[in-house]
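Q: what does this look like with pyridoxal-5'-phosphate bound?
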Amino acid sequence: MDEHHLLAPGPTPVPENARLAMAKRLIHHRSDEFREVFRRVRSGLQWIFQTDEDVITLTSSGTGAFEAAMTNFLSPGSTVVVVGGGKFGERWADVARRYDLDVVEMDVEWGEAADPAQLADILADREDVSMVTVTHSETSTGVLHPLEDLADVVQRESSALLAVDGITSVGVHDVPMDELGVDVLVGGSQKAFGAPPGLGFVAVSARAWRRQPDDHLGGYYFDLSRERRRQSQDQTAFTPGISQVLALDVTLDMMRDEGRRSVFERHRLNAEATRTAVDAVGLELFGARPSNAVTAVLAPDGIPAPQIVDRMNDTYGAVIAGGQKHMSSELLRLGHIGFFRRTDILTMVSSLELCLRDLGHSADAGTATAAAQRVYTNASHQDVPSEP
Ligand SMILES: Cc1ncc(COP(=O)(O)O)c(C=O)c1O
């Protein structure tokens, strides 16, 4: 049997209805049928990004979308302040260096949450900052950086644009783009959207459009102005990932049916159940301010994380993620982003405790599973949030 459970922080499982939508005959992207689908998708994206602005869909992974978010609003030699603290935050500094931009990295220790006061100090010292980038949910460490406070600092201390990597926070946490004054917010299809990888989303504020420099670094394919023009007509500039768009149409509809607050609450509860379960078997949670997209946890002493990841895969068909870069031997990352049901979480924590016992970690059988179940049982007695 080659069945396996995707239990990593992306790509996440694609619901069956969405998979079936991709299995139908292909439609042409210049057809009325596609236009109709794309119109719905554009409006669904605005709903989940909580913005009245256009959300541009690119056929690219999230990295391409974030690169476009930077290059389209920066000129050669512009200064960018990059809030670090993990692999993805640091990636945006690498991208900026590729374009010979003047990069000011705000160092944040992996596992720590970015300190708004540190950002304020950096901005107070410089007048020439064109953009600040923040990775809201840092998937490599499981930390959710304090976006509201960071946005506040950017707006108070500078006139820089605020570009936010929301790749594992949009659709997981409440990220009201317009209300927070975020200028550019980026998402990816394979995360909370539960669609296959291959689409990146870039929401752009009116302020960012107004401030777009004539000599911006945006390339030919990632020309957001052209995409904006075409997408306002429910078209894309080039051939899009049609099948992924069809799947996304289905999953956005599922999110709308569920309601935004319920989607956030489901993520919160699954995250709480996962954290409680791993804590119950004696594992140490990693990182301050945990994101509800992923639980980062330290492997027990004496058992390297890659051994757990491999055994979870080989013996239990459970695909979890290990640590990245210098954390690769010690960190495990358990995903709960996307259309995870309670039973998926129970499968994950139950497989993990079996696997840990196989590898010599002592914990009574059923401890993690029972702990997660208790979180769900207690929640069943609470009020279901009302829908926006
Ligand atoms: C926070 C964050 N940013 C960026 C990326 C990169 O996205 P992609 O792999 O779609 O290019 C990821 C992927 O896991 C992510 O979690």
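Residues 259-380 form a domain with the Aspartate Aminotransferase, domain 1 fold (CATH 3.90.1150.10). The pocket of pyridoxal-5'-phosphate is lined by residues 10, 61-63, 88, 135, 137, 139, 165, 167-168, 188 (CB under 6 Å).
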